[in-house]
Amino acid sequence: MTTQTIIILLLIGLLAGLLSGFVGVGGGVVIVPALVYFLGVSQHQAQGTSLFILLLPVGLLAVNNYAKNGSINWTYGIIIAIAFVIGGYFGSKISLKISPALVKFIFGLLMAYVAIRFILSGYNSLSNES
């Protein structure tokens, strides 16, 4: 592994961690596209790597800070976590059975849709503050 690759991986991790802690996005929103475009990793490998990364570390320090602040709805979190495990299992099975290009296309559409919704919502909220 080259020094350049290590630096890129460190930058991806820092950016994903900052965004996860700052706005609560799943690091996969940053990690998956970054691995694909900056390191040429396949879509499936990027997704698997992202899931591996998020498996434990996000739960340690970031969640601790939000818990100390009383900013976690534990009941919602437990229910979502149980469903997330089931969804993650079946989602990975489906993803691995279809073309990586189709997965990339669906992922991009989802990110674009969510981005547009957030941009419009934020813009409307800012407009109403004036």
Quick structural summary:
This protein is mainly α.
Give Rg in angstroms. Answer: 17 Å
Number of strands: 0
Tally of helical runs: 6
Mean of residue pLDDT values: 84
Largest sheet: none
Parts with pLDDT < 50 across at least 5 consecutive residues: none
**Beta-strand percentage?**
under 5%
Structure write-up:
It contains 6 helices and no strands. With 130 residues, the chain is mainly alpha-helical. The chain has one domain (3-129). Helix 2 packs across helix 3 (43-54). The radius of gyration is 17 Å and the shape is globular. The model has no long low-confidence stretch (mean pLDDT 84).
Sequence-ordered SSE layout with sheet pairings:
Elements: H1 3-23, H2 28-39, H3 43-54, H4 57-68, H5 74-97, H6 100-129
